[in-house]
Amino acid sequence: MADLQQDDPQSSSTAAVGELDRIPRTAVPARAQPAGPPAPAGPSAPEGPPAPEGEGSLARARAFLAAHPVADGCNHLGRALAQRQWHDLELGESTLDTDLPRLRAGGVGAQFWSLSVPAECAGDRAVSATLEQVDLVKTVVAAYPERLRLALTAGDMADARNCGRIASLLGPVSGQALGDSLGTLRAYHALGVRSVLFAGTRWSGGEGEGLSSFGHEVVREMNRLGVLIDLTGAPDRAVHAVLSVTRSPVLFSHSGARALTDAPENVSDDVLRALAPDRGVCMVGFAPEQTVRRVADHLDHVREVAGRECVGLSGMYGRDVADVPHADELRDVSCYPRLVAELLDRGWDGTDVALLTWGNVARVVRDAEFTSRASRHRAAP
């Protein structure tokens, strides 16, 4: 594996969603408790509770994540569980790098459950494999109602966080699993899918490295539905074509800075600069061989080039530990505090870390909803 892998005018209801996203999550047990008072938005956002006296940056990071949890851009746990006849995520899974105790220890408040299928899986096989994963993930979420909650909107994400649950978003779905059908896209949306990968499709770089006329329709329909566009691994020409069409910010759900690591999934500085006007988000992934310092280098670079509102986190966990493991410092989902501690030691302020862990992802989900409301007058293709 490479160094880093290939996170309508507003109505009164939309204002409510915005308010929910500004309420900090305190450290609460799994059962719902009343939320605290709203925190001020913007640069004055709190930096989280202070660390206990005499303890270092790791304790400060854990206290910070209690108020500003991680929204993880890509977890492959669904695929790993599909290969098992039995699991218990509450007791813990020693053969996996993700379970509920470690998600809580890592300060994870939301995660996208990857629904991607192998590149060789196409046509009806890709569609059926994706539907099986959707069914499995929804079954898992329903089995742990005190820990997990399905999230379809930014408001759902905030509600889950404030009740001590982990917001679970479905996606990204592989582009080839659309079967070149907008009807299939609408069916996925109806099932709760909120993100689709463009890489590897004929209509977004597979032929000529551009965006075909069907690709333009996919972008417009995703805007209309409120489904996030995931451009991880898409050719630069296709990325710029999508950015010229979309009315919603885009995501790179598991990428890094190509200037630091020349891998196909990573993002060039030219693309990073193009994200800034619409505040799209590059969610920096943790490749198995990456150390905390190396991941932090990529985060520094993305923030410097694209801006603090364009960076997020993507642990890329959910793997069997028999596969290529993550470095010890980032061995499982409990290790996010170590990365946050490194960033605090590097001088990241509380506002920037809060945007990184939660704020930027929640804002992109919310912006997609706003675009969807504004596009409802547009008839479906």
Automatic annotation (TrEMBL):
Q: Region Disordered: what ranges?
A: 1-56
Superkingdom of origin: Bacteria
List the biased-composition ranges (Pro residues): 35-52
One Pfam family recorded for the sequence: Peptidase_M19
**What PROSITE patterns would the database entry show?**
RENAL_DIPEPTIDASE_2 (PS51365)
List, alphabetically, the InterPro entries matched. Metal_Hydrolase, Pept_M19
Q: Transmembrane ranges?
A: none
Annotated PANTHER family = DIPEPTIDASE, MICROSOMAL DIPEPTIDASE
Q: Report what the protein is called.
A: Dipeptidase
Q: Which organism is the protein's source? A: Streptomyces enissocaesilis
